[in-house]
């Protein structure tokens, strides 16, 4: 049975941390996890945690699939609001000591913690999603060409807008989220240079609340809609659900991110207005990493997922979108041109 653990945060004694892990049934044999086959694997969630209808939920789907196929025991560790690197170090250390292999940090915020913890557990594979800045023999950097999927979203937005104004909302202004912005804006402008793109970020580092607060996404989207936008694309994690709500209530188009948000149960009330979503195969990346450990050939180094292997893409779940034959044709052409190298998508605005 899967366990969701809220592992001790800053200010809690390390003895209490050890006790909490032991209470979950951990094995304190050594600092090496060994083979995961018939054993355990863990994911430590990013800001917003499971239930964000987006990034974290995609990671969970990969863990759930691995549990079903390999019979492993999956553990999920939730973040705490306002936590720092020491909290993440404690969390990853506890998961590794409990015998989980691999241990996967969902999001670039785990980079410093994984760099600190991984050398202490050389027989455990650590997965780091969305970051290549920290590397090691037992670290797999699971990264995506987000700008490529976002380019396709820009093509679609430019094709469907009637006001010639569309919006982009980024959760936090980081290099990763600016990849989404860069691809989207380029896709819009390459399709119709007369379309205005309004860009807004919800928070600035070190405030990462822009990934976890739907009210901020809702307010930002409403502001863009009031300014004339009739398509809004948000790359903002849980905060993006607020953007989708605002667009739907205004009967404007929303573009989702990371997961196929048209299919997310928590957004079912708004799905009619979710035109499409820029998908990242986070679930596949998590599953593939667990499988590699199961097979005795753990991944390490950069493992990149791009448009060519459907690592990123554009969902077609909304029937209204698939019926837009001219839009679909433009998206398909752009996808082919990116794959052929005819279109080079920027990774920074």
Brief write-up:
It is built from eleven helices and 13 strands.
Blueprint (SSEs and pairs):
Blueprint: E1 3-5, H1 14-23, E2 40-44, H2 55-70, E3 73-77, H3 85-97, E4 100-105, H4 111-117, E5 126-129, E6 139-144, H5 146-160, E7 165-172, H6 175-191, E8 196-203, H7 214-226, E9 231-235, H8 240-249, E10 253-258, E11 274-280, H9 282-294, E12 301-305, E13 312-314, H10 319-322, H11 325-340
Parallel strand pairs: 1-3, 2-3, 2-4, 4-5, 5-6, 6-12, 7-8, 7-9, 9-10, 10-11
Antiparallel strand pairs: 11-13
Helix pairs in contact: 2-9, 3-4, 5-6, 5-11, 7-8
Main location: membrane
Keywords: Cell membrane, Lipoprotein, Membrane, Signal
Subcellular location: Cell membrane
